[in-house]
Design brief:
The protein has about 220 residues and is an alpha/beta fold. It is built from 9 helices and 5 strands. Helix 1 links the parallel strand 1 and strand 2.
């Protein structure tokens, strides 16, 4: 992890403990403090956290807001990863939790001290620890997001003007920008602007992606 300022020993993982219940927070702090590879940070020093440990009976939007707040002020280039320990985690919050850095989820009622320490160390080393069922749900939701993005791009592509269709039809035929300009009796700048406009409007990164999507949609 690259630092914006200062440094943390490569052998020690700096951990911030977030818990609305002071007793739960103190218990987690005491457990982690017994391991010499873990440095438990005070609340005033959370900008140095490499891992955030969240201990809550229930995960809700207040917890996510707190996570976002702490991760925003990090001194690292990449915000800290999060270990969430809870009894109540709703599948519907999965993507929000991932957005807030969750890379490990543990059951509060079942967690042992050894498992907690091992998981925090693993996350500090860049590994993830999610229940198999949650991993499957994550893949499913990511696939749904991908399909939705493709549908959105297809809808936007359906609104191509005749000139835009002509440009991309010629691109699909392998013509270069200069050749397209000559064939359509317009300037090279106009052709480039048309291509850039369509790609920006539909969210494509390359011309090849835009052409392929237009072909699949039967628009050219």
């Amino acid at each position: 992890m690259n630092l914006k300022a200062g440094s943390v020993s490569a052998d020690v993982v700096a951990v911030g403990v977030l818990a609305s219940n002071s007793i739960a927070g103190l218990g987690a702090t005491n457990i982690l403090s017994l391991n010499r590879r873990l440095e438990v940070l005070a609340d005033a020093d959370l900008t140095r956290a490499e891992v955030l440990l969240v201990v809550e009976d229930k995960i809700d939007n207040k917890v996510f807001d707190r996570l976002r707040e702490v991760r925003t002020v990090t001194r690292f280039e990449s915000p800290p990863r999060c270990v969430i320990v809870t009894n109540n985690f709703q599948i519907g919050m999965l993507m929000t939790a991932i957005e807030c850095g969750m890379t490990a989820l543990l059951q509060l009622r079942e967690i042992s001290e050894l498992e907690l320490v091992r998981t925090v160390l693993a996350v500090g080393e860049g590994r993830a620890h999610l229940p198999p069922g949650l991993q499957g749900e994550l893949l499913t939701q990511l696939d749904r997001m991908r399909q939705k993005m493709q549908e959105i791009k297809g809808i936007k592509l359906s609104g191509l003007s005749d000139r835009e269709r002509a440009v991309f039809r010629l691109l699909a035929d392998g013509h270069r920008t200069e050749e397209i300009a000559l064939l359509l009796a317009c300037s090279v700048g106009t052709v480039k602007n048309i291509i850039h406009s369509v790609m920006s409007r539909c969210g494509f990164n390359t011309r090849a992606q835009a052409v392929a999507a237009a072909l699949r949609a039967g628009l050219i």
